[in-house]
Amino acid sequence: MLVVAASPRTRPAKSALSREAVVAAALAVVDEVGFEAASMRRVAAALDTGPASLYVYVADRRELMEAAQDLALAEVELPVAGGWRERLETLVARTVAELARHNDIAQAAVADVPLGPHALRIHEELLRLLREGGIPDAACAWAVDFLGQYVSAVALEQAAWHRAQRAIADPEKATVEAMGADFVARIDGVYAGLDAAEFPTIVALRPLLTAGGGDERDAWKLRVIVDGLLAQGPTPG
């Protein structure tokens, strides 16, 4: 049987490249292989093109990853119900959840200030809510940076948890409850073997150190941040 190779005329036409397509492909690659492994070459391969083609739309990998991180925030809805504090906490939680859905894309914001349109929309609302709560302007300016660090850290932690969950073959062991119990047992096993004379405080607080779920702890951390902002007297600087 004669096999005829596809010619440029018979081969399906590739979709036209655009900045939007390149950024969407980059986010999909991060979803699949993670932030560090999402190279320009991998993104280009996902688009069936060469790496050089991407530089028409982005200056370098850093710009591409920042744009992908911003795209991950596109679905964050600004809360409209409740008081300023409830809306602030809801907005932070929604931002964390959207970033955590996309593997470790939050790494793109760890050492830089997100300046994409979706990030700016969220920052604008965070600043507005902080001012609505009576927090001084200078404290608001620093607080939004602090909240950004909180969002990135919690999103990365949640993303790591999701990756671990997907890696477990046994469905019964992949539940949040089973994973949580295994996590606590592993840590508590280490604490149980500590010498009370060398680590008296850890031993004394052992039951508390593993109490509470991840969501409960994250909510508590955010409350502490907001409480601290409300307790501020003079503005920093």
UniProtKB/TrEMBL annotation:
Pfam name, any one: TetR_N
UniProt key word DNA-binding: yes
Keywords, in A-Z order: DNA-binding, Transcription, Transcription regulation
Top-level taxon of origin: Bacteria
Family matches, as SUPFAM superfamilies: Homeodomain-like, Tetracyclin repressor-like, C-terminal domain
Sequence ranges assigned to domain HTH tetR-type in this UniProt record: 16-76
DNA-binding region residue numbers: 39-58
Keyword Magnesium: no
InterPro entries: Homeodomain-like_sf, HTH-type_TetR-like_transc_reg, HTH_TetR, Repressor_TetR_C, Tet_transcr_reg_TetR-rel_C_sf
Protein name per its UniProtKB record: TetR/AcrR family transcriptional regulator C-terminal domain-containing protein
Species whose genome carries this gene: Actinomycetospora chlora
